[in-house]
Amino acid sequence: MKKIILVGLAIFAVSTSAALAAKKKAPAAAPAATASPMPMMGQVSAADKALYKKSQMESGMAKKK
Length: 65
Hints:
Blueprint (H helix, E strand, L loop, with lengths): L1 H22 L22 H14 L6
C-alpha cells in the first residue's frame, strides 16, 4: 500500500515539474529606445536654477553646503 502511494506521488512530482518547465519562455526583448517628449532628469535650465534659488530665499531656507 505504501509502495503504491509512494510511486504515485513520485510520478505526480515528475510530471508536474516537467509541465512547469515546459511553460517557461525566453525573456522578451527590450523595447527599442525612442525619443522622449520630456527632457531627461538632470537637465536643468538656467531659468529653473534661478527660480529654485529665488524660492529657497523667499521660503527662508538656508543655503545648501
